Amino acid sequence: MADTSVAEQIDDIIKLHPNWQGELIKNLRAVITSASPEISEEVKWRMKSRPEGLPVWSASGNIVCYVETFKNDSKLVFFYGSKLKDPKKLFNARLNSSVRAIQFNEGDTIDKAGIKALVIEAVEFNRSK
Fold first, then answer.
1. In whole angstroms, how far apart are CA 14 and each of 2, 94, 117?
2. How much is the pTM?
3. For residue 89, what is the domain's CATH number?
4. Is position 55 within any domain?
5. DSSP secondary structure code for residue 91 in this structure
6. Can you say whether the dihedral through the CA atoms of 122, 73, 112, 38 is positive or negative?
7. For the chain, what is the domain count?
């Protein structure tokens, strides 16, 4: 995967999950990248247990959010989530740390407008740092 573009690497990560989780990552990616022209894609944190790495979206040199996929759920993790207002109360995981996450299980719907608002707020937070 390392010899391909970042976009292709994320496409490959999506293909590794040919179920609801792959579709979730694809849909989240579309919402995140549409939120701001400042968003850039990266793949980070490759390790033995996850050689493909994680899809990561950044702006102003700092991470905005990333997706982690587990056996039974996936999480959209906001790197500076504790600094965000979250007016729609979407954060439902990792509430006791500086990151905040939205956990998705099979059949959950994506609040596209709410996630887009969080991404925009995170981009603005990164810009202000």
1. 15, 23, 24
2. 0.94
3. 3.90.1150.200
4. yes
5. -
6. positive
7. 1
